[in-house]
């Protein structure tokens, strides 16, 4: 970490060190000292930007959500919408080693959000944003004739988000869904949904 980095760059570098440390040690056993060591800086410098572990954790969770949003934002929006939906949801699945690590960290944060109202608010905002985006995509698919009229598109969006969350959980905790099986299950789900279109 350079001496002349701006404040936001330093905060992001510390957040990245936090994610690495949580992936290695778990959230409960992660300390500011661990994060500082991973970042290669002093505890004092970490505390200059984050007054407490809780403040760092909240920034770290927001950082994980932001990374996912950035990946989703890079997906090209081109017809057919079905392919866009698959590509969007693949950005959430742990299809490569770095995203597997991210998933473990995300699950740690989600568990912590059960007893931390600020983490819970971050999680809720992230889920709402995902469902809003999927609903808009489904509306576009409906206009393009890829989905039939009469569907409750927001309910369908919430169901797909929950399905992908389930794939992520099974990937992290069982041997049932590796990357290939997760990708195939997502495609099967979306294919069934879109089969009643044109």
From TrEMBL:
Claim: Cell inner membrane is one of the keywords in the record: no
UniProt xrefs under Gene3D superfamilies: Tetracycline Repressor, domain 2 (1.10.357.10)
Record has Metal-binding as a keyword: no
Keywords recorded for this protein, A-Z: DNA-binding, Repressor, Transcription, Transcription regulation
InterPro entries attached to this UniProt entry: BetI_C, Homeodomain-like_sf, HTH-type_TetR-like_transc_reg, HTH_TetR, Tet_transcr_reg_TetR-rel_C_sf
Annotation: DNA-binding region: 31-50
Single GO molecular function: DNA-binding transcription factor activity
Domain HTH tetR-type: 8-68
One Pfam family of this chain: TetR_N
Protein name: Transcriptional regulator
Species whose genome carries this gene: Actinorhabdospora filicis
């Amino acid at each position: 970490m350079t001496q002349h980095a701006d404040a936001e760059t330093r905060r992001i570098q510390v957040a990245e060190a936090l994610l690495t440390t949580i992936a290695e040690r778990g959230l409960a056993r992660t300390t500011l000292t661990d994060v500082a060591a991973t970042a290669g800086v002093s505890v004092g410098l970490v505390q200059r930007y984050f007054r407490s572990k809780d403040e760092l954790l909240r920034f770290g969770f927001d950082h994980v959500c932001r990374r996912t949003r950035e990946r989703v934002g890079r997906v090209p929006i081109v017809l057919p919408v079905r392919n866009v939906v698959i590509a969007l949801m693949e950005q959430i699945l742990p299809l490569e080693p770095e995203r597997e690590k991210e998933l473990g960290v995300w699950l740690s944060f989600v568990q912590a959000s059960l007893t931390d109202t600020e983490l819970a608010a971050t999680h809720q905002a992230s889920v709402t944003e995902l469902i809003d985006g999927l609903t808009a995509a489904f509306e576009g698919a409906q206009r393009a004739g890829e989905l039939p009229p009469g569907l409750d598109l927001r309910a369908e969006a919430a169901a797909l988000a929950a399905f992908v969350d389930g794939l992520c959980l099974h990937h992290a905790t069982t041997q049932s869904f590796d990357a290939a099986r997760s990708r195939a299950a997502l495609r099967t789900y979306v294919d069934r949904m879109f089969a009643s279109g044109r």
